[in-house]
């Protein structure tokens, strides 16, 4: 597996599903600032209808719909529909994740802890999402909210060092020194 972070303000997302898990994923996308989300649902729960608004299509996506998406998330549909949509995605070249069905996934969504722009993710490559979630909760207790401010301070310093001509080696050294002098990490 190769870990990456996707900028969902730039990519089109197809979200397919009907229930609470689909609603939770949509809320996550909306909270992350995803701008191009289309929701496909044959039988959406009322809260999903409300959250999706005019982004909701009350049918499952066809191959043209899937092809129009950069990435597709399939949630709570059942094995037959999961397999069908995963097959369409593969045929048109759209990467897909079928929640909790490892064999149909091109990628996995890690558990994450975020403090501003600082993000720490945990993945088990689909083997145990529950374990990843428990590790995430442990990290949440350790990573207090001050880290968002700390990153902003460090980022500003780094920009000054770059403007003053620091090369990559010097940036690394200055960053380590800055962190060490403040006792931010052991």
Can you walk me through this structure?
- The structure is a single chain.
- By secondary structure, the chain is an alpha/beta fold.
- The chain has seven helices and seven strands; from the N terminus they run E-H-E-H-E-H-E-H-E-E-E-H-H-H.
- It has a five-stranded parallel sheet with strand order 3-2-1-4-5, sandwiched between helices. Strands 6-7 form a two-stranded antiparallel sheet.
- The model has no long low-confidence stretch (mean pLDDT 95).
Main attributes of the structure:
186 residues; alpha/beta; 5-stranded parallel beta sheet; two-stranded antiparallel sheet; 7 helices; 7 strands; elongated
Specify the biggest β-sheet.
Answer: 5 strands, parallel
The secondary-structure element order is EHEHEHEHEEEHHH
Mean pLDDT: 95
Give the helix/strand class: alpha/beta
Tally of helical runs: 7
Radius of gyration: 20 Å
Shape by Cα distribution: elongated
Element layout with pairings:
Layout: E1 12-16, H1 20-31, E2 36-40, H2 46-52, E3 56-57, H3 63-68, E4 71-74, H4 79-92, E5 95-98, E6 111-115, E7 118-122, H5 129-142, H6 146-163, H7 168-182
Parallel strand pairs: 1-2, 1-4, 2-3, 4-5
Antiparallel strand pairs: 6-7
Briefly say what this structure is:
This protein is an alpha/beta fold. Helices cover 46% and strands 16% of the residues.
């Amino acid at each position: 597996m190769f870990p990456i972070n996707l900028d969902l303000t730039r990519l089109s997302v197809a979200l397919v599903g009907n229930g609470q898990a689909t609603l939770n994923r949509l809320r996550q996308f909306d909270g992350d600032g995803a701008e191009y989300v289309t929701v496909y649902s044959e039988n959406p729960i009322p809260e999903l209808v409300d959250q999706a608004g005019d982004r909701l299509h009350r049918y499952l996506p066809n191959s043209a719909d899937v092809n129009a998406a950069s990435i597709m998330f399939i949630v709570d549909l059942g094995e037959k529909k999961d397999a069908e949509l995963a097959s369409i995605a593969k045929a048109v070249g759209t990467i897909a994740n079928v929640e909790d069905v490892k064999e149909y996934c091109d990628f996995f969504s890690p558990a994450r802890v975020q403090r501003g722009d600082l993000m720490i993710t945990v993945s088990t490559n689909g083997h145990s999402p529950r374990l990843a979630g428990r590790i995430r909760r442990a990290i949440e207790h350790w990573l207090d909210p001050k880290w968002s401010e700390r990153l902003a301070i460090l980022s500003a310093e780094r920009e000054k060092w770059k403007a003053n001509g620091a090369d990559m080696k010097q940036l690394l050294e200055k960053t380590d020194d800055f962190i060490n002098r403040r006792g931010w990490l052991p």
